[in-house]
Amino acid sequence: MKKNVLTLFCITLLTLADFPSCSDKENKGEAIRNPIAANLPGKWTMTKSYEKKDGEWKEVIEPEGSGTTYLFRTDGSMMSAVTYANHDTYLRSLTWEAEDHKNTFKINYKAYPVEYTLMRLTADELEFGYDKATDYATGATQEGEFKWLFRRIDEEQKNFAERLVGRWHFSKSYEKKEGEWKEITYGIPDEGWHEYTEQGTFTAYSRQGGKEHTAAPMQWKANAVTDTVSYKPLDSDKVSRVRITLEDDRTMYVFYSVNFDPATGEMREGEYRDLLLKD
Question: Which structural domain range is residue 45 located in?
Answer without folding.
Answer: 5-153
